[in-house]
Design a protein that fits this description.
The protein is of the alpha/beta class. The chain has helices spanning about 10-25, 55-65, 70-85, 100-110, 115-130, 135-145, 150-155, 165-175, 200-210; strands at about 1-5, 35-40, 55, 95, 185, 190-195, 215-220. It has nine helices and seven strands. Helix 1 runs parallel beside helix 3. The longest helix is centred in the first third of the chain and has 18 residues, at about 70-85. It is globular.
Amino acid sequence: MKIEIWSDIICPFCYIGLTKLEDALQGYEREVQAEITWKSYQLNPDFPEDAPGMPTYDYLVRTKGMSMDDVLAMTGQLSAQGKELGITLNFDKAIVVNTKKSHRLIHFAQANDKGTALKKSLFKAHFTDGLNVNDNATLIVLARQEGLDEQKVQELLESDQYAYEVSQDIQEGVNLGLRGVPFFVFDRKYAIPGAQPLEVFHNTIKECLASQATPLQRRGEEGASCDPETGKCE
């Protein structure tokens, strides 16, 4: 089974959705062989690549027109959802940055069979530890911890390697009907938009295991996702 996932590192529902997917894949008597391919998407592509990080609360208030009360309510609900799944979302520590560099690094990691490991490290770095995932030194440390070659990572970060692939991922997702992230595509048969209930993941996996190739079908209504226009995650 091939699962393609469009997501952004600073998207809380992307972290939540990945955790649900992993839980669903483990819910079978026999191991499900799943090849996960990470696809890039940026919620804030216009955020300057060389700008310092901005606290998440401030970013949502200043750029998305949300009141602080609304921001605290939304992030509080997201943190509670994360806690139920065993992940920690510290929005008071998380900082918004341009994520293009991180996406380029994920492409490199994926080419070295470390894509999912690095993606999870980046989620934790951003949401739990409050690290800057656009900072070269931070990215080098995270990559080294996952067994990636430090010199090659340094060279990657100082170049524009995989920039084309990042932009192609985004366009490909839009062509498939992506309107927010996360966006999961199973064997190019079924698409799950958003962090749907665990049951939707279970049912989709079962059908993938049993079905023949069919045109792409959307599963369920629009699930919880992060909207790139409004900045709201609901």
